[in-house]
Each structure stands twice: as structure tokens, then as C-alpha cells.
Fold Clp protease ClpS.
Amino acid sequence: MVEDEVDTGSGEVAHLLVYNDDHNSFDWVIECFMEILQHTNQQAEQLALLIHLKGKATVKTAPRNVLQPKKEALVDRGLSAVIEGERI
């Protein structure tokens, strides 16, 4: 479901987590995942549902330096996103 990015030697592999909230619609979360994470519609829908049901999900695994701008873009759009090991 979540594709790994190839590490080009510029960072340790980490996980980008998104937490459920009561503010963002499914459509908005799906749109954000497709635009920022380049997930397919099906991947984005599955992740949005998983986050809704489980409270959180890993949405991307990649080197930390690749995940940082993606996390910031998700947060800028109102999603609760962290790189594993960071505090919410």
C-alpha cells in the first residue's frame, strides 16, 4: 500500500505518520495524499479509511530528508502529520 523511496545516501529511512482528526474531510485527506505523496486514488482512499478506523497510519516510508517537506506540506494543509519519533 505504501511505496518506499530509494535512499540516495542522504538520510536514514523513516516513516511519515498521519493521525485522525475531526476537522478534515475524507475528500480533502485523499486529495492531499494524491497531490503531496503521489499516491493513487485507491491508495489514498485506503489510507484515509485506515486512519479513520485505527487513529493513525504510516502513509510514506522514505529517507527522513525526503519525508520532511512532505510532512510540512501535509501540516500546512491542516493534517496531523509527524515523522516517526517526533512529537505531535
In short: Residues 13-83 form a domain with the Ribosomal Protein L30; Chain: A, fold (CATH 3.30.1390.10).
